[in-house]
Amino acid sequence: MAEDRWEREERYGRDIERAGGKQPAPWNESVVICLPDAYHHLLVGSASQAAAVLQNNWSGSKSDPAYQAALTACLEAVNGDVPSYMARLAFEKAARDAGVLR
User: Fold this and answer.
1) ∠ Cα 59 62 65 (to 5°)
2) Is the separation of the CB atoms in 89 and 97 below 8 Å?
3) Disulfide: which of 26, 29, 87, 89 matches 47 by Cβ 3.0-4.6 Å?
4) 32 pairs with which residues across the strands?
5) What is the 3-state secondary structure (H, E, C) of 35-90?
6) 47-75 pLDDT tens trace
7) DSSP-assigned letter for residue 13
């Protein structure tokens, strides 16, 4: 039986609709970060989650080249233009450079 829109949204999040129906793959292993203004660790498990963190919650420098590369890679992965693992690597580098990788 074909998966309906609600099942896809439940599995992949709402970003699937914005990505033109493409299904961004979740990462095999989450990246664990701890932002300075957070009281707990944050598990980032997909390019869409990473893009949201980078855009909305990032405490490091947004002019840092690693940040810019990570944001670009994550948005391109959400759109299906680059493999998801490349976004994970870029996000991990940005988190390491910002000192928030755990």
Assistant:
1) 125
2) no
3) 87
4) 43
5) CCCCCCCEEECCHHHHHHHHHHCCCCCCCCHHHHHHHHHHHHHHCCCCCHHHHHHH
6) 999 999 999 989 889 999 999 999 999 99
7) -
CB neighbours of 90 closer than 8 A, spacing ≥ 6? 66, 69, 70, 72, 73, 74
The amino acid occupying position 43 is L
Residue-wise burial string across 8-37, b where 16 or more C-beta atoms lie within 10 A, e elsewhere? eeeebbebbeebeebebbbbeeebebebee
Q: What are phi and psi of 63, to 5 degrees?
A: -95, -5
Tokens 């680059």, residue located: 82
Question: Which residue reads 């998966």 in tokens?
Answer: 3
What is the pairing mode between strands 42-44 and 31-33?
Answer: antiparallel
